[in-house]
Structures are given as C-alpha cells and as structure tokens.
C-alpha cells in the first residue's frame, strides 16, 4: 500500500511536466441544457481538457414532428462549458463516425483566427485537437462554422461557454441554460412527420419555429425550470440564430440585473433584454411569489405561434402584498344593459346552396368572430373559453347552441368535465351566418355533424333570450 501515494505523485508530476505552463490538468465537466456545471471555486487557472462530440440525430422538434438535428453532444443547444479566466483549454472535437458531414467549432471565447474553426475542422470518425487561452471573462456562444455555415447553425449546432472572472461570479440559488434558435422546415409549423431543412425559407428568414432549447415544449410542463420563493435565479441565455435577434422577456418578472450582451456592463431593473444572433446575456432575478413565469421572445407571434415559450415554476408562500391575485370579478354592464352585444356589420353575400358552402362560409365567420377566444383548433383556453372541439355541451343540444350565439350566455357551465364561468356576448350576426358558423362547428374537430338552417335561427331569435346557467347542466 505504501506504493500508492508515490504513484499518484508520479502521475501528477507527469501531468505537470507535459505542459510548459505547469498548470494542474482538469477534465471539463460538460452539462446538457438546461443544466449548468457548478461554480468552479478555483483561485487559480488550470489546463482544462474539453472532449466534445458532434452527432447528427433525428429528434422531435414538436409533438409528432421529426427533424434531423446536427448537434454538439447530442442536444440542442450543445453542452455547456464552464471555465475560468486565464485557463488554458485543450479542446478535443470528435465527429461521430455515423455523421454525413464534416463539422468544426468557432468559439467566441477564443482569441485567434476563426475562433478555432479551421483548427477544428473534422471529418466523420476523426478527432481534432487545438489549444486556446481564455483571456476574457464572459458568456460566449460557440457554433459550427463549416460551410454552408447557416445550415449547420440552423440545424442546431451552437452552445455556450461561460468564462468566470478571477474571483468567480456572485453566488445565486439557481443557474439555468437556455438558448434560442430559429428553424426552417419544408412543412409549416406543426405539420407532422419528418420535416427536412428548407434552405429557401432560411435565406428569406421565414422561420417556421423559434425555440428555446431545440423543441416546442422543451421547457414546459414537467420539464419547466424550477425555483422556490425567495431564491435568486441566474439565466444564461444564448441566441444561436441563425437569423433572428431575441427580445427575451420573462412574463411576471423584472430582471434585477442583466449583463448586457453578456459583457461586463450591468443594467438593472430590465423588463426585456435584446440578445443578438450569436450573442448571449446573463439575467438575474429574485422570485418573490409562487406561480408559473413564462419565458418568451417578446416578438410575440414567435412565442404563441412558433414555439418560443418556456416556463419557470416557482413554489412557496404567497405574499398578497406583492401580488394579490384576482380579488373580485364583477359583471360590467354599462348603461344598464344585460349581456353585451358585439355588432359585426356584414356585407351582402351569396347564400350557401348546400352544406359544403355552409361549411366554407361558416369557417370565415368563425375565423372573424369566434377564433380569438375558442382558438383555431376549437380547443378553447382552459379556465377562460370553453372548447368547441368534441364538446359535450355543444353536441348535447345544438338548438341551445343557436341561443348561445344569438342571445349570449352567462353563469357557470361544465364542458367536457371542465368548469367555466365567463360571459359569452350575444353575437350580432345575420341569421344565415349563425347557421353557417354552427354548421361549420358541428362538422369540425370530431363533433357529431348535422346542419343548422336559417329558419331554425330565425325561429330561435323570435323565441329565445339570454341563457343564464347555474352550473347544474351536467
Ligand atoms: Cu457542423
């Protein structure tokens, strides 16, 4: 047993003597998103050996939609590298033998031509090694820079390197890794099946997907980031692009501190921070009250229609002095009216000659009048607007549905087991449009079918009145 310490001493000596700088040798601890390696807590530089692998693999970009991603380390974004100012990095880039393409890496943390791109150009089944010294602290993007560069980046080849300053960063309770990217697929957003890359859309900068961490829902539901009330959170947020700048915002939070463009300048009390393509920010905030906080690109169609939406779930004690939640909801009835009417003047239009034309015209009525609340999918919004898709309430009594559209509805109802208590205004639509839109709805989204005629609507208009529900229908 006496030999053991001397063996360790010998191997340490070899490690030191192998490098002129005589720095201790450490293998980098790389993490996959959204995780970040722990703070280094070193008071000296080191020789850091980084072993990263490029892998081309099919993964889901959205539910039921597959895409051939090109990755650093098998994830989008690639693995997070954490080093210290003054570290000497020995970077090993391996390209998996199953790859179809050569790849390389341009690290924005490198001072040197191409950020290491030419030195790291690697054919499938090979490994390249190069060295660099981390001269500047900061948070840096890395990406593949093999031609066509835009395509390699668009396929997900980017990630972040954090270079801690001497002395480290101020401690926080939680650190997470989020990276935005825009994606271009031959099918439209959500079109199922395997979707190849679309170079034409990429050149025109017409993104089908704008995503945090490489897929729709990558940071939602049980994959949401988490924190407890009172904790401080630091987000390392990068933007891989290839094309779009990000207006990064957390709904319901204010960033106490933002390292602008991930540099040394600090801004305080920031609502939305701009992250250029090929750039990053470190954003910190303390969470004060529990709930779900939604990360978005505040170029807001990207969030709600292209996927740029993630979640931070915060648990802990409420503080009603900071946020009360809804304390009252009263019906607002100006000038003493009952249910409000929404008027919708319509030009004269050709009457539908058959059910197919009713469906066609009804769809237009739906899009103009109903879709904003009940959604294009007919799914509604939980807690606010009931679903029309597969709706038991609708299918049970289509005549009642006529009354709802022309006279409005208020009071609690249950639809498909979910409770709702909002107000549906009486729609000021001509009888024919009511007939068409209800025919459209009855024959969409797995509802039971059938038609509603103009005569039925006219009859209900004469007889009916506002429906007041008491929640006991089901
Ligand atoms: Cu590449």
Task: Please summarize what this structure is.
19% of the residues lie in helices and 31% in strands.
Task: List the total number of helices.
Answer: 10
Q: What does the largest sheet look like?
A: 6 strands, mixed
Structural class: alpha/beta
| Stretches with pLDDT under 50, minimum 5 residues | 1-19
- The proportion of residues in beta strands is 25-35%
Q: Hetero groups bound?
A: copper (II) ion
The geometry reads as elongated
Helix content: 10-25%
Rg to the nearest angstrom? 29 Å
Q: State mean pLDDT (0 to 100 scale).
A: 90
Oligomer class: single chain
Distance between the termini: 78 Å
Walkthrough of the structure:
There is one protein chain. With 474 residues, the protein is an alpha/beta fold. It is built from ten helices and 27 strands. The strands form seven sheets. Strands 1, 2, 3, 5, 7 and 11 form a six-stranded mixed sheet that branches. Strands 12-10-14-19-16-17 form a six-stranded mixed sheet. A hairpin with a 2-residue loop joins β2 and β3. The N and C termini lie far apart (78 Å). Bound molecules: copper (II) ion (CU). The site of copper (II) ion (CU) has 7 residues, from loops.
């Amino acid at each position: 047993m006496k030999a053991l310490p001397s063996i360790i001493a010998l191997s340490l000596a070899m490690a030191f003597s192998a490098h002129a700088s005589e720095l201790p040798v450490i293998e980098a601890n790389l993490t996959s998103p959204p995780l970040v390696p722990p703070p280094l807590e070193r008071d000296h530089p080191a020789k850091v050996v980084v072993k990263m692998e490029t892998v081309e693999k099919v993964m889901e970009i959205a539910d039921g939609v597959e895409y051939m991603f090109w990755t650093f380390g098998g994830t989008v974004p690639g693995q997070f590298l954490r080093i210290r100012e003054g570290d000497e990095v020995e970077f090993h880039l391996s390209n998996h033998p199953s790859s179809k393409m050569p790849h390389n890496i341009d690290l924005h943390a490198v001072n040197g031509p191409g950020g290491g791109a030419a030195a790291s150009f690697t054919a499938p089944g090979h490994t390249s090694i190069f060295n660099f010294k981390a001269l500047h602290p900061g948070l840096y993007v890395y990406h593949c820079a093999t031609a066509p560069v835009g395509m390699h980046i668009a396929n997900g080849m980017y990630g972040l390197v954090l270079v801690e300053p001497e002395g480290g960063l101020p401690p926080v309770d939680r650190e997470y890794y989020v990276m935005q990217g825009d994606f271009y697929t031959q099918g439209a957003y959500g079109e199922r099946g395997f979707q190849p890359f679309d170079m034409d859309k990429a050149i025109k900068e017409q993104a089908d997907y704008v995503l945090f961490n490489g897929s729709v829902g990558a940071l939602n539901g049980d994959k949401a980031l988490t924190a407890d009330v009172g904790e401080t959170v630091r987000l390392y947020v990068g933007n891989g692009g290839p094309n779009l700048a990000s207006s990064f915002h957390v709904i319901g939070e204010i960033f106490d501190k933002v390292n602008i463009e991930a540099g040394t300048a600090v801004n305080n009390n920031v609502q939305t921070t701009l992250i250029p393509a090929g750039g990053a920010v470190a954003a910190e905030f303390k969470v004060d009250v529990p709930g779900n906080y939604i990360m978005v690109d505040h170029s807001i169609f990207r969030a709600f229609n292209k996927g740029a939406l993630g979640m931070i779930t915060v648990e802990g004690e409420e503080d009603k002095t900071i946020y009360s939640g809804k304390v009252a909801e009263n019906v607002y009835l100006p000038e003493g009216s009952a249910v409000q009417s929404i008027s919708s003047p319509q030009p004269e239009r050709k009457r539908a000659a058959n059910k197919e034309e009713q469906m066609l015209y009804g769809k237009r009525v739906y899009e103009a009048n109903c879709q904003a609340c009940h959604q294009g999918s007919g799914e509604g919004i939980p807690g606010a607007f009931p679903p029309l898709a597969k709706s038991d309430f609708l299918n049970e009594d289509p005549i009642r549905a006529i009354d709802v559209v022309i006279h409005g509805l208020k009071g609690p109802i249950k639809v498909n087991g979910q409770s709702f208590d909002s107000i549906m205004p009486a729609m000021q639509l001509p009888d024919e449009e009511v007939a068409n839109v209800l025919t459209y709805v009855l024959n969409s989204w797995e509802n039971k079918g059938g038609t509603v005629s103009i005569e039925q609507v006219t009859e209900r208009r004469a007889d009916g009145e506002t429906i007041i529900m008491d929640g006991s229908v089901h």
